[in-house]
């Protein structure tokens, strides 16, 4: 039997759609009211022009919606070519012939019943299928909602969810590797290891507080303090060694600064490989910052061409100078450009000193000599900047943190552990340890009181 005949057979046996659609919408409404999230859908393949568009569905009721579209569910995790039909009264309308995949929960990305419709990517096809899904009671997904549901169903933790977002946004190979490591749970395993150690220490502390008359070994409190100090030092070292990964995720900013008419805009254009900034022999041409995104040393870098630094009575140029100084303070690397010999005084925060126009005057000692006009020294400068980018994003930490949220949570954990070590009273020490446990739990989204109780009752014979 051909696919066309199969579709015709399904249509002949179809239930009239009007009443069925109303019942489906009412069912979704009742599920949402009773705490069951509705079926959501979204394009997993994005909006760019392509041959195939992947429409993803998830939620309780996905199976019923897919059956309404194509007649019956395909075998789980096997692609099946089906006709997608809209049945809203009268003669059914063929929307598309698509590959349909069915992923029954909990073995799916979200942990819910899910499906994928691999459509032809014409906008009319996408719109028609989306309208049909809405008519059957589904709704468009909110940003990040599929991953949010996966987190809520225990399919991933917060660290892995953030890793997926970073993997989608990765521009370079280094970013891809870093994000993939996070998706695979490298950070989660490290933080869980710390949480397990802290939970065990807190269990010991709770036992010392609540059961002082028990025959507990006298060295328990000393081992507790030693363990806290070791964990504190480990996390402190991790913070010091892991900052480069955060820079790699967000990318670096290199500010090109210097006096007017030394070739800053020409240098930006040469590094970018295109005419991004206006070049003129007239001083003060650049009034506002011009940004160009590129890759250096396998690291995404935003080059910022700034206004020339000089005293001026021109109100607009003066504002440009003020913004230039702001970029100097905010940049990860400041490239100070000058022309002539000797070099001008180095700006506060300048990292790389570049002498342009060496076709006219040789560069002084300590500066990288280039001529944008003749392309002299540009390869050397590119190498220096690439090395700088790699150095700024390097780190010795295993599974380093990648976001300000991670750093803040770890710093808070370290602070509470340090305060716990300084507390002379066991009760106050225990409270600081609980606060540290809570801060650490926020990294992965798991703050488990029951796990603490299991540790307490599993290690000590309490209540016998």
Automatic annotation (TrEMBL):
<protein>
    <recommendedName>
        <fullName>tRNA modification GTPase MnmE</fullName>
        <ecNumber>3.6.-.-</ecNumber>
    </recommendedName>
</protein>
<dbReference type="Pfam" id="PF12631">
    <property type="entry name" value="MnmE_helical"/>
</dbReference>
<dbReference type="InterPro" id="IPR027368">
    <property type="entry name" value="MnmE_dom2"/>
</dbReference>
<dbReference type="Pfam" id="PF01926">
    <property type="entry name" value="MMR_HSR1"/>
</dbReference>
<keyword id="KW-0819">tRNA processing</keyword>
<dbReference type="GO" id="GO:0005525">
    <property type="term" value="F:GTP binding"/>
</dbReference>
<dbReference type="GO" id="GO:0003924">
    <property type="term" value="F:GTPase activity"/>
</dbReference>
<feature type="binding site">
    <location>
        <position position="56"/>
    </location>
    <ligand>
        <name>(6S)-5-formyl-5,6,7,8-tetrahydrofolate</name>
    </ligand>
</feature>
<feature type="binding site">
    <location>
        <begin position="261"/>
        <end position="266"/>
    </location>
    <ligand>
        <name>GTP</name>
    </ligand>
</feature>
<dbReference type="InterPro" id="IPR018948">
    <property type="entry name" value="GTP-bd_TrmE_N"/>
</dbReference>
<dbReference type="GO" id="GO:0005737">
    <property type="term" value="C:cytoplasm"/>
</dbReference>
<dbReference type="InterPro" id="IPR027266">
    <property type="entry name" value="TrmE/GcvT-like"/>
</dbReference>
<dbReference type="InterPro" id="IPR005225">
    <property type="entry name" value="Small_GTP-bd"/>
</dbReference>
<keyword id="KW-0963">Cytoplasm</keyword>
<dbReference type="GO" id="GO:0046872">
    <property type="term" value="F:metal ion binding"/>
</dbReference>
<dbReference type="InterPro" id="IPR031168">
    <property type="entry name" value="G_TrmE"/>
</dbReference>
<feature type="binding site">
    <location>
        <position position="286"/>
    </location>
    <ligand>
        <name>Mg(2+)</name>
    </ligand>
</feature>
<keyword id="KW-0547">Nucleotide-binding</keyword>
<dbReference type="InterPro" id="IPR006073">
    <property type="entry name" value="GTP-bd"/>
</dbReference>
<dbReference type="InterPro" id="IPR025867">
    <property type="entry name" value="MnmE_helical"/>
</dbReference>
<keyword id="KW-0460">Magnesium</keyword>
<feature type="binding site">
    <location>
        <position position="265"/>
    </location>
    <ligand>
        <name>Mg(2+)</name>
    </ligand>
</feature>
<dbReference type="Pfam" id="PF10396">
    <property type="entry name" value="TrmE_N"/>
</dbReference>
<dbReference type="GO" id="GO:0030488">
    <property type="term" value="P:tRNA methylation"/>
</dbReference>
<feature type="binding site">
    <location>
        <position position="116"/>
    </location>
    <ligand>
        <name>(6S)-5-formyl-5,6,7,8-tetrahydrofolate</name>
    </ligand>
</feature>
<keyword id="KW-0342">GTP-binding</keyword>
<feature type="binding site">
    <location>
        <position position="155"/>
    </location>
    <ligand>
        <name>(6S)-5-formyl-5,6,7,8-tetrahydrofolate</name>
    </ligand>
</feature>
<comment type="subunit">
    <text>Homodimer. Heterotetramer of two MnmE and two MnmG subunits.</text>
</comment>
<dbReference type="InterPro" id="IPR004520">
    <property type="entry name" value="GTPase_MnmE"/>
</dbReference>
<keyword id="KW-0479">Metal-binding</keyword>
<feature type="binding site">
    <location>
        <position position="464"/>
    </location>
    <ligand>
        <name>(6S)-5-formyl-5,6,7,8-tetrahydrofolate</name>
    </ligand>
</feature>
<comment type="similarity">
    <text>Belongs to the TRAFAC class TrmE-Era-EngA-EngB-Septin-like GTPase superfamily. TrmE GTPase family.</text>
</comment>
<keyword id="KW-0630">Potassium</keyword>
<comment type="function">
    <text>Exhibits a very high intrinsic GTPase hydrolysis rate. Involved in the addition of a carboxymethylaminomethyl (cmnm) group at the wobble position (U34) of certain tRNAs, forming tRNA-cmnm(5)s(2)U34.</text>
</comment>
<dbReference type="GO" id="GO:0002098">
    <property type="term" value="P:tRNA wobble uridine modification"/>
</dbReference>
<feature type="binding site">
    <location>
        <begin position="305"/>
        <end position="308"/>
    </location>
    <ligand>
        <name>GTP</name>
    </ligand>
</feature>
<feature type="binding site">
    <location>
        <begin position="280"/>
        <end position="286"/>
    </location>
    <ligand>
        <name>GTP</name>
    </ligand>
</feature>
<dbReference type="InterPro" id="IPR027417">
    <property type="entry name" value="P-loop_NTPase"/>
</dbReference>
<keyword id="KW-0378">Hydrolase</keyword>
